[in-house]
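Session log. Operator J.P. requested a structure for one protein chain; no other inputs attached. Running the standard single-chain path with token output.
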Amino acid sequence: MKAEQRATEEAPGRPGALVRPRRMRPHNADVVRQARLYADGRTLVLRDRRLRERRYPVGAGGIRRAVFVQPSPDAWEAVTKRPAERWGVLVFENEDGRDVLSVPLAEWLPEAGAVGILHLKPAKCLDRTGLRELAAALGIPVEEKPRSESGERVRPETGSGQAPDRAVHRELPRWHSWIRGLGLFGWLVALVVAFAADVDWCLPVAAGALFAVPAADAVVRVGAWWRNRGDDGRRFAEAVVITPDPAPGEGATPRFRRTASVRVLPGDVVLTDTVGQERWLGRDGAHGIVRLVRLVSAGDRQPLGVEFRDRGGEARALLPWRHWFAGPQGRDRWEEMVSALSASATDEVVRSTRQPAGITKPWWNGHSLAADARMMSPLPSKDARAETSWHSSVIGGNELLLVPLFSLVLLAGLFGDTLPARLAGLFSLLTIVAECAPATTKSLFSRFHYDKPYKNA
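Structure written below.
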């Protein structure tokens, strides 16, 4: 049914029949840049972050239909319990009705983190991702099937217990979770044995096992930095790069000026927000970016923002004008972006909603891409630290407190008389440093420079 092989970075097939992943943080930039779903003739191809391909033939003995499974009608349940399926799932089936490949729509919508579930209907999300166009390119009919009373889709009995493949993107590699879990488990077991059976050499084993927790994080972060460092110059060598030119007095920070960008490639538009989250929007196909709409105020016709719209007229990204094009070089950058995209540029009046006296909110409040406008603007220092903190945004904030506390149990051994105690103390010290030093350094750098507005901003 499927075959695996290595691929090049260029996906063959029709440019429009190409589905791109959701936006992701810098440590997963290789997912956004390389993972794709596309059609290669009569074959559906799923390519992962390492350019490994799974190929699913279409036709006799392969995929025969696609079933669009609607999300739960309870929006809260859809977002909290199954966030990847909050807009539904497209399931590719064979001729026996067995599920072959399950594609959660939220995993393949580039602006998934920037648009709310209430602002985008599931059927429209299916179009925006390009999955409906992909199915059409493969000659696969898309249909919808009912759900059972339990909320699951009604499926035929096929007698096969084989689970379908899932086209999802892990936030962290599987080995990372295993090492962290084994490290915590090994620390607990070795510590119990050391004190219960009075086995001295279990102390450094316990401390070393706990050190594996921050070490696994460090490997992921350093590896991502190294990959991105080498990849950026090569992949974007010929891109037209648009960086923000904010108006004076708008609170622009070094982080915003150095991180946020719009990069125009021959077949893609790459948007990077203030905290480094990257997403790729296509320029071809039924939902490629073909139009820039400058939103202006109703009264004085002052520019407020810029929408990137696709061929269907749907807004896919939103840039606040005052943070991107209101500076001394802003007009030139606006014209450069319009020229690079070869897109039509028009103005559209925004009808602002009335606000209570004394309350001033951003003009984009109520816009379907309000979250996008916020992330494409300078963030308050506290918000920027929270969004970029490894512990609060990726791992979980409690680890920064708990792991050093666990290490304190054996830290005093650093001044002990025996070699096992000293080794345990050394590993404990390394664990505390590995856990706390990066977070502390990053926080201080943010407070005193990176997220502090320029004096003339």
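Operator note: The longest helix spans residues 202-235.
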